[in-house]
Amino acid sequence: MIEVQNLVKKYGQKTAVKGISFKVDSGKIYGFLGPNGAGKSTTMNIMTGCLSSTEGKVLINGHDIFEEPKKAKKCIGYLPEIPPVYTDMTPYEYLSFVGKARGVKKSELVKQLKDIMELTGITGVANRLIGNLSKGYRQRVGIAQAIVGYPEIIILDEPMVGLDPKQIIEIRELIRSLGENHTVFFSSHILSEVNAICDYVMIIADGKLVASDTPENLSRRLKGNSIELTVKGNEKAVVAALNKIKGVEAIEVISSDNGQVVLKIHAENDIRSEIFFALSEIKASILGMTASSFSLEDIFLKLTDKDSLEEDDSDDEDDADEEDEDDDDDGEYTPMFTSDIEENGGNDEEDNDDEEDKKEKKGDEE
Amino acid sequence: MLAVYQKELKSYFGNVFGYLYISILLLFMGIFVTVNQVNSLNSDLTETFGTFGFVLILATPLLTMRIIAEERQKKTDQLLYSLPISVSSIVIAKYLAMLTVFTVPMAVISIYPYILSHFGFIDAPVTYGALLALYLLGASLLAIGMFVSALTENQIVSAILSFLVMLIIYFSDAIASNLPTEPKVSFIAITALVLILGLIVQVMVKNYIVSLSVMAVFEVVLAVLFKKNPALFEGLFAKIVSWLSVSSRWVVFRYGVFDLTSVVYFLSVIFLFVFLSVQAVEKRRWS
């Protein structure tokens, strides 16, 4: 179990991490999301003792990483952003060095290394120099290193970076299988990865934790709040009828021609059946109705959007902290945004497309 | 700790540096012995050891330049930080690995007096005393080189810097004997030293208040002392410079004196620079 308490890291004038607190429970896979420069690597470096914190504490299974580093570090395997491999060693030599340093017994080491190399798919290159290996293999050696000694907690900083889609799928499977016996905490900015394998997602932006919940909860909370509607009928009559429905917050007419109206409705809850009955009363037929579901991407973009962050900043700082604590206590997600998700979609659409492209490519590979 | 030690040893003998270092030392020792002993029919090895000290200074950066700088350059230091080993045992293990590599040529050289004793008179205590001093000198240079390596993440910079430091150490005796001894000159030179100290503090802690106050305190103390007793400064700077000289410490061994203070001096230098290296590595986590 990892407990991070009010972590602050300042680099000179710049504050990279602004008071992050969270708990990581045993036996789950945690995804740590955030745009570049949000403080992911800094946080992970502090968690593993590679970096000191300006303020705050990190407890690994109850041991403070700075006060009892040996006990705390015994429980951790860490893959930093750049795989820390010695290029003049072979993977086998390298892994046995890490094993010895972690205090694995000689008798166990040979078998353990065989298993781990099998698991990470580097058995074939075990006796080649790491310096001659490709980026993908080096990454795997890096991951293998984090597993050696089977530490309880495995922390991986962007394990998928630099891998081809096929390798990404393999590593994804690997992380999933590791999650069965270990606590895995990994960072990524590829959302589909996180969505696919994590039990729990933490989103960090500009040095602050902005959300932490299961991926399903994160998107379910938002689902149904926005409805896209295509109706055959008179625009004014339709809008008037819709306005009568309880819970409607805003109605936006997107287009209206040839007696066909396209609308977007923001509501407090799922009001699809109310819409159906309200429109049937005025004899306006519904041609299409979709509840916009929010993928992790939308949530990510919304939460990490600069403008919304600044809004939050102008609010009371304490509020944000309290919300974080709430997350820890009951696992309930308190959205820091409720409506107008789609409004800033214009800029973000490109990013979305990119993500979708990636997904498609992966799909092809599969 | 043992794991790091083994890893370092392996890496010295896994690439060219370990072999290069050993062969350079043995090659030059061989040449010197051939010229000084075999060809000139002289059995006094201590003179040869003296010349050999200079080769030691030239070769040391070969071992020390990569020892910590490379870890930083390749970001492998992050692995070491995340392992359940303390920074001090990592640094000590690295130092011991270098010392082991250095011991190989020294062990070979230690056979020379025995071989030569078959052909002439060898004063064994004096010769082995000088050899021990040579070993201590080499060990001190390794510690100093390791500290320089801990200051930078570029191996080339580390090599050039440690080379410079080694040269200054080697020639500090000659420099010291040529320095003017007037109190004023000493005062100015020490003031300059204090400025350099302040700069180093500034680089290490990146805090103007701390570095300026350190400088101010030293300057005030100096000024007061200078006002009260200028005679104190007579030749003081030259003394400081020659005190820094590692090389002058072992010259006495060549004359057959087993100087215990020098042994303590070398051991202190080793301890101090290993300690400073640990601090420099620790400091990186706090930047």
Enumerate the strands of the largest sheet of chain A in spatial order, edge to edge or round the barrel.
6-7-8-3-9-10
For the largest interface, the chains and their residue counts are: A-B, 32 and 25 residues
- Helical content of chain A (DSSP H or I, runs of 4+): 40-55%
Order of helices and strands of chain A: EEEHEEHEHHHEHEHEEHEHEEHEHHHH
- Radius of gyration of chain A equals 24 Å
State the low-pLDDT regions of chain A, or none: 311-366
The string of secondary-structure elements of chain B, in order, is: HHHHHHHHHHHHHH
* N- to C-terminal distance of chain A: 34 Å
Question: Keywords for this structure?
Answer:
heterodimer; A: 366 residues; alpha/beta; four-stranded antiparallel sheet; 14 helices; 42% helix; disordered C terminus; B: 287 residues; mainly alpha; 2 domains
Summarize the structure.
The complex is a heterodimer of chains A (366) and B (287). Chain A is of the alpha/beta class.
Would you write up a description of this structure?
- The complex is a heterodimer of chains A (366) and B (287).
- By secondary structure, chain A is an alpha/beta fold.
- Chain A contains 14 helices and 14 strands.
- Chain A has a six-stranded mixed beta sheet with strand order 6-7-8-3-9-10, sandwiched between helices. Chain A has a four-stranded antiparallel beta sheet with strand order 2-1-4-5, sandwiched between helices. A four-stranded antiparallel beta sheet of chain A has the order 12-13-11-14, covered by helices on one side.
- Chain B has 287 residues and is an all-alpha fold.
- Chain B is 82% helix and 0% strand.
- Chain B has 14 helices and no strands.
- At the A-B interface, helix 2, strand 6 and helix 3 of A face helix 1 and helix 5 of B.
SSE inventory with pairings:
The complex is a heterodimer of chains A (about 375) and B (about 290).
Chain A: E1 2-11, E2 14-24, E3 29-33, H1 40-47, E4 55-60, E5 63-64, H2 69-74, E6 76-79, H3 91-101, H4 106-120, H5 135-147, E7 153-157, H6 165-181, E8 183-188, H7 191-197, E9 200-205, E10 208-213, H8 215-220, E11 226-232, H9 235-243, E12 248-257, E13 260-267, H10 272-281, E14 285-291, H11 296-304, H12 306-314, H13 317-330, H14 345-365
Parallel strand pairs in A: 3-8, 3-9, 6-7, 7-8
Antiparallel strand pairs in A: 1-2, 1-4, 4-5, 9-10, 11-13, 11-14, 12-13
Helix pairs in contact in A: 3-4, 4-5
Chain B: H1 2-14, H2 16-39, H3 45-64, H4 69-73, H5 77-82, H6 87-109, H7 112-116, H8 124-151, H9 155-177, H10 183-205, H11 208-228, H12 236-244, H13 247-254, H14 260-285
Helix pairs in contact in B: 1-2, 1-6, 2-3, 2-6, 3-8, 3-9, 3-13, 6-8, 6-14, 8-9, 8-13, 8-14, 9-12, 10-11
